[in-house]
Amino acid sequence: MSLQNSIQKIVIVGGGTAGWMTAAALSNSLLKGVSITLIESEDIGTVGVGEATIPPIRTFNNTLGISENEFLKNTHGSFKLGIEFVNWGKLNNRYFHPFGQYGRQFDIVNVHQHWLAAEQSGTAHPLDEYCMAWAAAKQRRFSPPQPDPRSVLSTYEYAYHFDAGAYAMFLRKYSEKRNVKRIEGKIKHSQLNPNSGFIDAVVLDNDQLIEGELFIDCSGFRGLLIEQALKTGYEDMSKYLPCNRAWAVPCELKDFTPYTRSTAHKAGWQWRIPLQHRTGNGHVFSNDFISEQEALDTLMQNLDGEPLSDPRLLKFTTGRRKQFWNKNVVAIGLSSGFLEPLESTSIHLIQAGIAKLLALFPTTDFDQHVIDEYNRIAINEFEAIRDFLILHYKLTERDDSEMWRYCKNMPIPETLESKLQHFESFGRVIKGEMDLFADASWLAVYIGQGLRPKQRDPLMSYRNSEGDVWLSKLHQALHQAAQQLPSHADYITKHCRSDINFMS
């Protein structure tokens, strides 16, 4: 039974990853009684920095009933077990942020506390060596985790690298099969209701009028509805995350790693994302500390292979809209805000926005309590991710350049300061209400970038556990298990190879 005031007309402004993920999810969930229209222009390019993801993307695809192998074939995708960080913390330092956990809990005291004791006594390998994700990744191996919780092969997760443009096209086909109507065109202006201030319709450049009740703004940085029409306002976060530019360029595929690499340079960092047919690269930087030309030169000098196209320059201001949902407009994707792709969260924030919209789906009354709750959750999610990204910049010993000296000494949010204090005191990982990243993620950065607690958890003094013996057995088990896995390239060749040139 449908409600008398149910939403019957949804208009999505903008295609790309955000628009078509939204269209796909809504068309899969809203099975009757509603029309969904998506407006996009072939003339407007998409921002393709979201080619690396985190594990929740698998839940999104599974919810839509999308086959993993079909998805990867169509998007030239590969697997991702985590991110290798190079030159973060200090020059010539490397560490791995894994998808999954370190070992398995064997004592009431957390595994990393036993590792800290072993490190102090000189019996420990680097922390990376105690997680299955890195044991496989460093050998360029991949296979999905095993379901048996007794196996170390159950202790990791994975995500994907893929061509975001191809993913948008894949979801477009999915959505159009489920009656989403696509209209080619550019928005000329929005028609606001003189009484409520809501958007009644958008007008295209050919003067076509598209009416709607609920509008989803997926128009990218421009924020055609949320900002240009509704003047929502923007909260600038660049004092914490100073990078405001990125050069992006694909190059030949040379090393098919099942992980992303992030390499810090003097005024930013470089991403490296291997797909089946190319490697995606980019240099995220601050033009306050380096010129655009020098940043481009740095990128081009550090490619694996020959570039496959001309580099593109993207400009952004890190931050978020003051409201993600304003009146009858919900901003999803870059229109809602931008956090640099350091931890591959852009596509996740699209997914999270869609999930919240479905969980708090409105009626034509647009109850303000619903809108307020959406915004409360969205702001908390966004700021929790922001804090995790800030940690990478703040927690550094580098003083070789102006930007790193700034980051080392910059003030940080109280929420992050509190977490740092807890770890510095007793090595405890404290989680916030809306933290996306698990304990292992925080540990990877704390330990990987050189932070050590002044003392260990007081519980350690009450335990008899032979942590060093257990860690030794774990290290051996992980190494042996990794040897059983197929290579990343072989797994893809067997299960989900694209019909393109692929290094196998």
Describe the structure.
With 504 residues, the protein is of the alpha+beta class. The protein folds into three domains: 209 residues, FAD/NAD(P)-binding domain (3-Layer(bba) Sandwich); 166 residues, no CATH class; 71 residues, 2-Layer Sandwich (D-Amino Acid Oxidase, Chain A, domain 2), CATH 3.30.9.100. Helix content is 34%, strand content 19%. Helix 1 runs parallel beside helix 6 and helix 1 runs parallel beside helix 9. The longest helix has 27 residues. The chain is globular and about 75 Å long.
Keywords summarizing the entry:
504 residues, alpha+beta, 15 helices, FAD/NAD(P)-binding domain, D-Amino Acid Oxidase, Chain A, domain 2, 21 strands
In short:
By secondary structure, the chain is of the alpha+beta class. The chain has helices at residues 16-29, 56-63, 68-75, 111-121, 132-137, 164-176, 224-229, 292-300, 346-359, 368-394, 402-409, 414-426, 439-448, 467-483, 488-495, and strands at residues 9-13, 35-40, 78-80, 82-86, 94-98, 159-161, 181-184, 187-192, 199-204, 209-211, 214-217, 234-236, 245-251, 260-265, 268-274, 279-285, 312-315, 319-321, 325-326, 329-331, 337-338.
